[in-house]
Fold this protein.
Amino acid sequence: MKLHLLELPHQLEALNDILKAFPELDIFAKKDENGLAANSIYANPILKTAFQENKFIDVKMETGTGKTYTYTRMMYELHEKLGLFKFVIVVPSLAIKEGSKSFLTAESTTYHFRQELPQFSRIDLHLGVVNSGDFSAGKGKRKEIPNIIREFAEADSNNKNQINVLLLSDKGFLDKATSSLFKDDYDMNLFGGESSPAAMIAKTRPVVIIDEPHRIKRDGKSYKHIIDKLKPEMIVRFGATFPSIIQGRGKNKVTKTDFYRGEPQHNLTSVDAFNQDLVKGVRVEIPEGANKSDAYRIKAATSKELVLTRQGKDYRIANGESLDSIDDRFPAYITYQSKVLSNNEDFELPVGMRLVPDSFANSYQEILIDQALEAHFETERENFVREGFKVKTNALFFIESRKSYREETWLTETFDKLLKDKITLLIAKESNSEYKSFLTATLNDLPGSRGGYFSGDSNHKSSDDKITEETNVILRDKSKSLGFKDKDGKWNTLRFFFSQWALREGWDNPNVFTIAKLRSSGSESSKIQEVGRGLRLPVDEMGNRISDEDWFLNFIVDESEREFAQSLTTEINGEAQEKILENVKISSEIIKKLRDEDYGENKRQIINKLYDAKIIDDNDLVINVSALQALLPQSGLKKGKVKVGRDNAVDMVKLNKENWNNIKDFWLEVSQRYMLQFNEIENLSELFKQAISDETIFNNNDTLSVTVEQTQKSENQISIVGNSTYIRNRHNIGRLPYGMFVRQLNRTTNLEIKLIHEALSERLSEFDKSIVNDVLNEKTLSKILNSWQTVFENNFSEKYHYNKLEFKAKTSVWKNQDFLDEIPQGIVGTIPVDVISDKRNLFKEIFVDSENPEAKIAKFKPDDKIKVFGKIPRRAIQVPTYTGGTSTPDFVYATNDNLFLLIEAKAGGGLRRSEEIAVVSQGKAFKNLENVKWSKVTSKDEVVDLLNNLKKIKK
């Protein structure tokens, strides 16, 4: 299965913020602060604020919203705009490293950047992954710098079409001064005479990307080695969580988030991610079966003893002593071992944590597994029989140790028994033959439906091919866990994954719908990080991301974490509340929020108004916190995004059915099923001739850019100086024989060779015969391909029309020949609009999908000539687009004399290609409807003008 990547608005917004914050090139510098020449062909060009830590960049994006895509796209953009071509990605764990590697090397990623983004069609991303085995020298062999690092360092800027990326974990490479990366006893090489791998990397003046910065803190060894050894001129950190720092002393002591510039350059908060439906909602389930009333709480955990308290009495457990010494409901094998519990090194013991003895018993673990399977199969069937393409449904189980899954038998035998019983019951009553076949295949091979990944697997060498395959599917080839069948057409039933917290951070699978914690982690780490493994929106069996439905993650925990849902909600809402400090400069984030609230049109106007209101002083320091908070919108987690228990009720919004019935005839007409039909493209030859008609397409390739470097003596050292120049291309480098030129055009355009030959021959006949061979080169080939893509898309996207079909579309508001009483709120909009609903509105409560312009349009109250108006839910009208999928207008207005205005609302600025296609499609679909006006708008005022000028429209 091939995943389909999309340009998502929230990721492009992050990208724009990064590019705004990124420094320009320092075109006047001769060398950097480390003495490296500015024009070194092996190094990135020098940035104006190179090596200045307070100018580095932080990007805060919630788990599951696509940080990896964003930093990958950032590398392409920086290469195109600034010529940067050397990047080092540092991650804190093997799971994150494998996930990054998998994304960067995936066929779908290459296709997206090479085929769907024409500006990058000639760019190759060359990835080198640093592994511990790279530094091993055979006995008696010379010790050489690993080829992965050598290739990265020696790649030069003469190759304008290559981005070079080095990926490594900080563990074992950056966290120890004795790391092989830092040693300088390797054979010297021609690259600057370096004998240290780190020194070679430093000579590239890299841009370093840090993933999960809370694991690589600025006061830690790994970070200090990045700065001192790799010498990056820029660091960009991407994470959902950033480390905290303490500033000041005593009463002035303040805990702040450690951002380079005091605040992130982009901030997609948890609230934004949940409320904008960029991630799944969370349903927390706590099965009964453990007596929660007599739980112990941790009072202290030292190297010598564990102190528990219950009902006012303290219980002391010495280091090495079993917990069953105080309560025989604890298993005898669980002992206290210097701040952790035995059999689970990751089980932390924070003060205040609850320990419920019954939750450690195998009988309660069985209840948790059973509940997880119940939640899984309920969700799985819904996803399997849904309208449209099926969605593979996966589940993740966190357990206490590798040993309990790989070596002991109770867990796997119990799981297989419960799974067998559950599937047998489901098969007996299943009516869908295809899903029944899938369940039967699972029943016939229960062990094949589950797999595990543990960080300790690498320390236990195994010849078991199943373990190797499990690891590959979980860490590297994620697409195999998302498809239903293998290449031979057999059911792929693997969908239950087990891990001992090795997958707690940095790993995610979009189709994880259930996470069960069979053992509490005991960790005080972010609750969002824990649910994050299943937050990403799912993809269907064709690899399409599904963002227009309400999805929930089932999260199963035991009695010791009864407050999990509340803690999660508190953590999410905590990010929404802007922390405003007195006598601190007003932040750009607050300025942005005030601008969105129409407090002012730009920063200068907002600052002036705040000053006049005595909210800030003339240094822009906040002097009236309460007054400023009153101006800001109240924000928090949308109702229903975090639930407790198996209550499947979805937040609903009621229709004003009288108003819907008032426009019933109109709605039945516009909601008819349409078939998009392409007109025949009559003459591809003429299109291709158009693509090669521009005189600038053909490049005679007579010059080459060359960088010349030479040594220069100075008082204490030898340095390198150089300059760039152009020379004549005497050896015709890049020239292509005519046959090869035509064949490459054939392979990349899918046009017939005969067509290409005839059009090209005709075009080349216009050139002087003496230069015909010169213009057949790689530069010309690239220009023709870009031109052809533009010409073809411009023509192709216009050559279609819509035919009405004789049957009605299945839509979100109509069933059994009547409008529904209520529909899920999520398909109307994700953002509540604080306005009293007009009796003419289609809904009793108002929701939209964007603050601007949708919320502003929704607040507008039209005059009395309008009888019905309101937001149109997703899929209420389904206009097919030529790229697949459907599009729905945003608003409708109906006049008393049955004129109708359909509105597609888009924020000002450029549209993404997918939005352009949707806009064109809607315009075509509605242009022939009598008394219907369709228009794209960017503001409320445009809607007002359209309504004022709405007249009968004869088609």
Summary: The first helix runs from residue 9 to 21.
